[in-house]
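Checklist before submission:
- one chain only
- standard amino acids only
- sequence pasted in full

Submission:
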Amino acid sequence: MKITVDDLSGPETAAFLAEHVSEMRSITPPESKHALDLEGLRRHDVTFWTVTDDSGTIVGCGALKALEGEHAEVKSMRTASAHKRSGVASLLLDHLIGEARRMGYTRLSLETGAADFFAPARALYAKFGFEPCAPFADYRPDPLSVFLTRLL
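Returned file contents:
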């Protein structure tokens, strides 16, 4: 597998992200959905990566969004359905943590869902040292959200 910075211009990336946003909208009410769409990921304060398999097919994605100071947020973590539980998410999260360190961040935080659907994601984040925290940045308390953070 290969992880590369993606400029979000390709149709495969757009389709992969559209599926992600659609799935999040089907699971989470609009007021609790925090997934960034294509335009949100194209902002200057976001760096986006895709994971491709040996054939060049996108099997995962993730992003880092700069927050205040030395704090960044993990955004848009997704693994293709056919590749869940195959190590894609671990590989990507390890990469994002390394990139955050390289970029000079000292804290990495994220928001994920509280529903059972998100239990594998929460377990992955815990495995990588993320711990519960209060809402950060512009987030507000939400019973459908779980906020996690870790020092780098």
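Reviewer check: Residues 6 and 49 are 5 Å apart (CA to CA).
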